[in-house]
Amino acid sequence: MMEGRPIYKEEHELFRQSVRRFFADNVMPYIAEWEEEGITPREVWRKAGAAGLLCPTVSPDYGGAGGDFLHLCVIDEELGYTGQASFTIQTHTDIVAAYVEALGTAAQKRRWLPKMVSGEMIGAVAMTEPHAGSDLKAIRTTARRDGDEYVISGSKTFITNGINADLIIVVAKTAPELGSKGVSLIVVEGDTPGFRRGKRLKKMGMKASDTAELFFDEVRVPVENLLGQENLGFRQVMHEIPKERLSIATVAMGASQKAFDITVAYVKERKVFGKSLMEFQNTQFKLAELKAQLTVAWAHLDQCIARQVEHRLTGDEAAIAKLFNTELQCRMVDECLQLHGGWGYMAEMPISRMYTDARVRRIAGGSSEIMKMLIARTL
Ligand SMILES: Cc1cc2nc3c(=O)[nH]c(=O)nc-3n(C[C@H](O)[C@H](O)[C@H](O)COP(=O)(O)OP(=O)(O)OC[C@H]3O[C@@H](n4cnc5c(N)ncnc54)[C@H](O)[C@@H]3O)c2cc1C
């Protein structure tokens, strides 16, 4: 289902092989260790950079490979297909580097992108606050202009790569009185005085990904750290978000396919009541239903990817892909875990990790309910 699709050319399929090999050799053997530690070591980021897995679309002028959007999709599909997506290069590449690419000045790109491509700098995006997630307009973090600097005060939570991050795009109010028309995106580098990381948050899944609270106590950054235009941050986020949601839908598809594939292999091996679990009609019908859903979802994903390649993907189309594929992923891991029986509940089994990892997909990056709101607005 993943290979041989018309949207991809031979170069993408070759790239897929090298990406799959990278994850198999450098991520999968160590994932249990990283889950224990609650973080993916920086060294792995640098290896991923050297292998061309970080920010593949960045222009060679800024140290990148100058790949196209499809290279990004291949990485996201393969990341999902590892059955663990908690090596969170997706946030780094698909959100943080993408914002810098889309909104940054030439000087900002020169300063940050080469190190993001190599994995020397790890990116995070800080939107969510303890009291404001879905309702981004309700954020309270402010960035007051003082001469040639912004002074940032506030706190963020649930920030992916929060512990590892060297470059954090902070969403802050530069003109609080203007509501959503007074929001800006400002880059804070990890060693800036007044910036502090809170504790690493313990999560039910995605355990090799570090998630943290971040605190900004009168953090001063030069005005050159403004990304895009002052007070247009909300609009800029909304402009970039369909692509981000498509990438979440893409990882979810890879993960759904992986859950399905390992379960087909498992039921063929497992014997119950003297025959293979695959021989029971319940198993066949369950897997047939799941295969039908997967097939349709891949077709829709390809349609969305093709539209994004032409820069025609709309917000509601991306919301449909994000809603459908993340809900599919959660149904898939649930049904597949059931077919594993008690073994599926054992932490050592990949389907068990896939089950707990999947749950966040229906929440982060815009919850399923927010996706439905966006879709409903088109009715
Ligand atoms: C593991 C993880 C990683 C994350 N990484 C990041 C990150 O890197 N950067 C970042 O900024 N954020 C991150 N987040 C935050 C994430 O984007 C938010 O959790 C998400 O947007 C939901 O916000 P919330 O948690 O405040 O829930 P709330 O907004 O409080 O929502 C609670 C419930 O209410 C529902 N709801 C909200 N509004 C409506 C409505 N209008 N109509 C109907 N129902 C509604 C929601 O769907 C949800 O079911 C992460 C979260 C997690 C769990």
Q: Report Rg.
A: 21 Å
| Distinct bound molecules | flavin-adenine dinucleotide
What portion of the residues fall into strands of 2 or more residues? 15-25%
Number of helical elements: 11
Structural class call reads alpha+beta
How many structural domains?
3
Shape label: globular
Per CATH, the architecture of the largest domain is Up-down Bundle
| CATH topology group of the largest domain | Butyryl-CoA Dehydrogenase, subunit A, domain 3
Q: Note poorly predicted spans.
A: none
Tell me the name of the CATH class of the largest domain: Mainly Alpha
Proportion in helices: 40-55%
Q: How is the largest sheet built, in terms of strand order?
A: 1-4-5-8
What is the end-to-end distance? 32 Å
Spell out the CATH superfamily of the largest domain.
Butyryl-CoA Dehydrogenase, subunit A, domain 3
* Secondary structure: number of strands: 10
| SSE arrangement, N to C | HHHHHHEEEEEEEEHEEHHHH
